[in-house]
Task: inverse folding
């Protein structure tokens, strides 16, 4: 999973981009980068890439001159965690810069095709492949829009992307709309700037006004101090789709709760998850019982659970925020972070029937540590309430759910919910059903047919190469 941000038309574009990336930090903590240029010097690029979280020095900001900037935060799903695989990517002939969020499933096929034509690759990153493909098409006579349309036709999978070429910023999205991308506008010091972001929270931090979501198979062209131009490429797309495939896990876990993505409020969505989860459990005894969250991604779902069930809400686990997100950590880091990340409030928990709400169970090891932690703090019973259905299948579109062999709910592991309950050592385990998840989407005014549930039901919206149908993942074979 990654986050992208773009600024077009403001002379301090880099500083705004840094602030935007800071608010997208939850989407990736391994590397980050920014590239800038100017509309009147569009062949000159200023690029920095760094490891870790977003932290720019005054020297970085001075270096990053220009009124167009694009930035990226990353945690690796394809390619190793090094700076060659970090984004943005630049190409010198023709001169362009590019960043993207999402993974593609026919990476190997397209890379081999380009390598036969003499295209060189420095990384195993999807974003570099897409940038080099666009550069190749432009170099061989296509204008940027036609090149993007051909990329949309030839590349399978997820990409929400920003291209900068000849002083213009192009924002576009795959035909299924798997990953979110929005744009907004800001007026400051006589300049009109156009802002592109993975989530609306990136617009909020720089006081940009949200305009709308970029539609699947849409290309929006931004120029400094000019109105954007929108092109609907859906009629030029081969194998057009009847329904979109928005990633439902973005709404369940990945996006920030104050964001709006896929034309719905993430906060409202998660609150409804908790409400439906409480309804599944039926009437609960509030006496000597408490409900709480595994902070922070399940906070809002726990609030909805409390409001529906009338069980008192308490902060039973306190999170140590400097540990980061365990989901986007490596396996070794995850084990250590799970131990260090939370501390129980013993005076709240002691002798209580605890309903603890979490957003998902992936491998099960973190959930087991949390159940043990609550019991060691004196909980009478621990009822683990999960505001999503079981994660049974890996994702190939940019979320680093592990192989089937690692997923605790997969057919290659425990699969049965009673066995999972025994593994995590909970007194009761309740998953939200897929049907109730779809009810939440309907209550938010959206069509469940426009969402991807592949990690839960195995119904992938694209074909998968043979090696990806196995338990393996990634491009490095």
Result:
């Amino acid at each position: 999973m990654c986050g992208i941000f773009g600024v077009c038309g403001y002379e301090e574009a880099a500083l705004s981009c840094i602030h935007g990336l800071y608010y997208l930090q939850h989407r990736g903590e391994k590397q980050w980068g920014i590239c800038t240029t100017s509309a009147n010097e569009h062949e000159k690029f200023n690029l920095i890439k760094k490891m870790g979280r977003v932290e720019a020095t005054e020297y970085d900001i001075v270096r990053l001159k220009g009124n167009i900037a694009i930035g990226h935060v990353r945690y690796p799903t394809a390619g190793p965690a090094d700076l060659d695989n970090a984004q943005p990517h630049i190409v010198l002939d023709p001169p362009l810069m590019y960043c993207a969020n999402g993974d593609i499933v026919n990476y190997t096929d397209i890379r081999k095709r380009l390598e036969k034509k003499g295209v060189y690759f420095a990384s195993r990153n999807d974003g570099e492949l897409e940038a080099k493909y666009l550069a190749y098409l432009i170099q061989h006579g296509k204008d940027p829009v036609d090149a993007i349309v051909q990329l949309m036709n030839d590349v399978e999978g997820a990409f929400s992307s920003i291209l900068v070429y000849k002083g213009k910023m192009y924002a576009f999205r795959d035909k299924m709309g798997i990953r979110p991308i929005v744009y907004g506008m800001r007026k400051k010091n006589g300049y009109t700037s156009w802002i592109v972001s993975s989530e609306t929270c990136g617009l909020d931090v720089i006081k940009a006004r949200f305009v709308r979501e970029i539609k699947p198979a849409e290309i929006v062209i931004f120029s400094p101090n000019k109105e954007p131009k929108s092109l609907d490429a859906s009629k030029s797309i081969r194998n057009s789709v009847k329904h979109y495939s928005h990633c439902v896990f973005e709404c369940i876990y990945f996006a920030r709760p104050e964001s709006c993505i896929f034309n719905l409020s993430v906060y409202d969505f998660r609150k409804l998850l908790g409400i439906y989860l409480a309804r599944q459990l039926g009437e609960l005894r509030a006496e000597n019982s408490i409900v709480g969250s595994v902070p922070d991604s399940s906070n809002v779902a726990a609030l909805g659970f409390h409001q529906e069930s009338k069980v008192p809400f308490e902060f039973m686990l306190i999170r140590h925020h400097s540990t980061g997100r365990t989901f986007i950590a490596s396996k070794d880091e995850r084990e250590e972070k799970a131990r260090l990340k939370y501390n129980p409030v013993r005076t709240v928990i002691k002798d209580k029937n605890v309903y603890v709400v979490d957003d998902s169970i992936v491998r099960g090891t973190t959930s087991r540590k949390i159940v043990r932690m609550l019991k060691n703090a004196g909980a009478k019973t621990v009822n683990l309430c999960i505001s999503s259905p079981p994660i049974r299948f890996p994702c190939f579109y940019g979320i680093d759910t592990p192989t089937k062999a690692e997923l605790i709910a997969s057919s290659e592991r425990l699969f049965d919910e009673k066995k999972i309950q025994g593994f995590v050592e909970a007194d009761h385990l309740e998953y939200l059903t897929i049907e109730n998840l779809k009810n939440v989407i309907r209550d938010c005014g959206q069509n469940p047919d426009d969402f991807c549930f592949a990690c839960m039901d195995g119904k992938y919206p694209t074909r998968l190469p043979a090696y990806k149908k196995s338990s393996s993942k990634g491009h490095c074979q």
